[in-house]
Amino acid sequence: MRGDRRMSSVGSMSHPQSYELLLIPDHSRTRTGAPGRPIRSAVVAATGDTGASGYPRYAGEGMEADIDPETRTVEAVLIDGDELDPGMSVQVAEGNRPTG
């Protein structure tokens, strides 16, 4: 038997390689209940790691997030190394076409 060669998880990812994330204050919801305007956005790229939530980890522009690629739900997030402040939410941008 040949030696066990491990492939980089980045090279074998079956999930999107990047997303645009939006940081939105919960109080900014519109009259219809839709999310309001984001106060910050960031393009995050796959790190090749799995986060504590069990979903792929993405990082970039001060945001780190575990994202469920099937539902495009942000399962865990850090903003500039800190937990998300109460009253804020992060979501994948609508119409975002992930790469990969």
Number of helices: 0
Order of helices and strands: EEEEEEE
Head-to-tail CA distance between termini? 33 Å
Give the number of domains.
1
Q: Give the helix level as a range of percent.
A: under 10%
If you compute it from the alpha carbons, what radius of gyration comes out, rounded to the nearest whole angstrom?
15 Å
Low confidence ranges: 1-11
Going by helix content, strand content and strand pairing, the class is mainly beta
Number of strands: 7
Summed over residues and divided by their number, the pLDDT gives a mean of 85
Oligomer: single chain
What global shape is seen? globular
Task: Give the strand order of the largest sheet, numbering strands 1, 2, ... along the chain.
Answer: 6-5-4-3-2-1-7
| Most strands sheet | 7 strands, antiparallel
> Per DSSP, what share of the residues sits in E-state strands of 2 or more residues?
35-45%
Could you describe the 3D structure shown?
With 100 residues, the protein is mainly β. It has one domain (18-92). Helix content is 0%, strand content 44%. Strand 4 (63-68) and strand 5 form a beta hairpin. The protein is globular, with a radius of gyration of 15 Å. Residues 1-11 have low confidence and may be disordered.
